[in-house]
Design goal:
2 copies of one chain form a homodimer. By secondary structure, chain A is an alpha/beta fold. In chain A, about 40% of the residues lie in helices and about 20% in strands. The model of chain A has no long low-confidence stretch (mean pLDDT about 95).
């Protein structure tokens, strides 16, 4: 009985996500679903990405949070279109929530849409929102044991950005272990160690994004 | 329909949690449900707590994780009884999972039981497992915006441990803002800034625990 209910939820979500996906394709927009634990730096990564790519690429952002519009306000300061979704209690975004946000966004005016999911290493990975690629962000402050402990998100993602490398010397984080364990779960994962604070390593990430945008247009 | 299902799940969970609670009381065990985002340092805090209190207080631990027994193995090295729950995909512990773990644990031989929940700032706060108190752990690396963005966990918790204060000088974390926003959500929250790495500030947290243990016996 429980399984049946779950299957219905995920099946219904997949149908809505498929409709979103068609809308994105019709408009030639490359869409990423950006996921991480709380406080890994999703909004900072989006800010840096807009600063770097905003001149050559039309970026839009959908922000997902349990409560507040704090992240949308931060992104709004960069001047790109942004819509905030407040999920109430829900711990992830789903296809319906993103579809509702699309009513507030002109897809024909975008090349890249970044959907920032609710901070959570578990449930967001189960729900497609219609994205081209899932991307996950891991902070070195969280520890190098996360790939093996939260395998689904590493498996579902196409790119892994490892943020806050400026803190690595103050932690026990072992970059090689994180890399090795992530690739053992998902051998095709593209991995970019970066520091949004210093800018270190962001070039590789921007390159990955630009390739996706070029492929979608 | 959705709401009905959710009500059933939470209602059924509360009944099981109530049975766990009676078991804990009958055995005079003080039980905390320790929650945080992934990588905030729950297992490190438990290790430090066992080192500090283990001589005068009989401690047991239930570890909750999506996958692996890594945390239970860490705790096992301290010599205290520990049971690992692997939730599969589930992003939180519930009353039934903890009840199942209790079959492997002699409550009459314990003064303090620490239940380490799955790393997640959202769903764990919705499910009682029969604990006396919920405790949440926030890492300064996650940022000082978390109380307003994840209010339920701050509201449900009795104590807030703010970990990794040794990193505070390398981040933008504003301790006074975190404290103020947490108390605006939950004025009776006891707040302990600590560093599990340096040991700084742990005394206050140990005192809060000892008081709970004394009250339960």
């Amino acid at each position: 009985m429980k399984v049946k209910v779950l299957a219905d939820i995920l099946g219904a979500n997949d149908r809505v996500a498929g409709e979103n996906r068609r809308l994105f394709r019709d408009n030639g927009v490359f869409v990423i679903n950006l996921m991480s634990a709380p406080g890994a730096g999703k909004t900072s990564l989006i800010e840096k990405t807009i600063q770097a790519l905003g001149d050559t690429c039309r970026v839009g952002v959908i922000e997902g949070d349990i409560a507040t519009a704090a992240d949308a306000e931060r992104i709004g300061r960069t001047g790109v279109p942004v819509v905030q979704i407040n999920t109430g209690g829900a711990c992830h975004l789903d296809g319906n929530m993103v579809r509702a946000a699309l009513g507030e966004m002109d897809l024909s005016a975008l090349d890249l849409l970044i959907v920032e999911n609710v901070g959570n290493l578990v449930c967001p990975a189960e729900f497609n929102v219609g994205e081209d690629k899932k991307v996950m962000l891991l902070s070195v402050a969280e520890g190098d044991d996360k790939p093996l402990k939260y395998p689904l998100m590493f498996r579902e993602s196409s790119a892994l950005v490892i943020n806050k490398t400026d803190l690595v010397e103050h932690t026990d984080f072992d970059m090689e272990k994180a890399r090795r364990d992530s690739l053992s779960i998902n051998p095709s994962l593209s991995i970019y160690p970066v520091s949004c604070r210093t800018g270190d390593g962001l070039g590789g990430w921007f390159g990955w994004l630009k390739e996706g945008v070029a492929g979608a247009s």
